[in-house]
Amino acid sequence: MYKQEQIKPYEGTGDKGKLVEEMFDNIAPTYDTLNHRLSWDIDKGWRKKAIRRLAPFSPKKMLDIATGTGDFAILAAQMLHPDQLIGADISEGMMEIGRQKVRQLGVENTISFAKEDCLNLSFQDESFDAVTAAFGIRNFQNLDQGLKEMCRVLKKGGHLCIVELTTPVSFPMKQLFSIYSNTVLPMYGKLISKDQSAYSYLNKTIEAFPQGEVMMEVFKKAGFSKAEFKRLTFGICTLYFATK
What is the gyration radius of the CA atoms in the chain, in angstroms? Predict the structure, then answer.
């Protein structure tokens, strides 16, 4: 078990997946605002870098895991023009906001949303050319199982592209990020979302989540033949790219 798997929202007991679902349903109305403000809109650039990494492969059928309000799915549809893109998440509250954005942008013919348990996906083996995830896999209650499922539904030779928040490894960004994430992030999150513990939980999972070289072994264990990573913005975010 990885450290972040033991961290649960609201310091609750029982199934972590249910608690994560409840938390994201609660913060869904303010999630986009907080996400962009707390990262100073840098998160938009991280998503673009991830999608550009997939561009040479022109995926036609894509799955966006832990899609939330659909930002990554929408950007992927706009930049890669796949025939079909499914956004999967456990939170109906988050996905309903995503559906509204998709209708407003007129891309509902390309993007659909599905409530899914990311540890037990309903899709058949080798269904997708590419699988993506942005800032979501650290909420899995079983990281190994979640990645195995991503690998299972990918076609042979298909690609997994993930962006995830991480902790910087070098001075002084490591120290500055620690101060920011342990003070500003939870305080501002509480102020805007009115949820006292959600952003404290999210910060704790960033600190506990395996990253960099350790994740390379995690991907291989899940069944991927190749994996690589690149730290972005001094290591605040990491882009992972794996091939089945």
Answer: 17
Residues 6+ apart with CB under 8 A from 167: 174, 177, 178, 206, 207, 211, 235
Residues 6+ apart with CB under 8 A from 205: 4, 7, 138, 139
Sign, Cα dihedral of 218, 221, 223, 227: positive
Q: Strand pairing partners for 64?
A: 87, 132
Q: How far is CA 110 from CA 5, 60, 179, in A?
A: 33, 10, 41
Structure tokens at 49: 């870098």
Q: List C-alpha distances in Å: 231 to 3, 9, 144, 162, 164.
A: 21, 27, 22, 12, 10
Euclidean distance between CA atoms 190 and 14, whole angstroms: 24
Average pLDDT for runs of 10 along the chain of length 244: 93 88 94 75 92 98 98 97 98 97 94 97 98 96 98 98 92 78 71 76 91 96 98 95 98
CA distances (Å), origin 190, targets 16, 78, 95: 21, 33, 22
Instruction: List residues bridging with 237 in a β-sheet.
Output: 165, 232
pTM recorded for the entire structure:
0.93
State the pLDDT at residue 14: 82
104: amino acid identity, one letter: Q
Answer whether 227's CB lies under 8 Å from 215's CB: yes
Closest among 46, 43, 55, 50 to 241, alpha carbons compared: 50
Q: Where do we find the tokens 């910060």? A: 203
Place of tokens 């870098």: 49
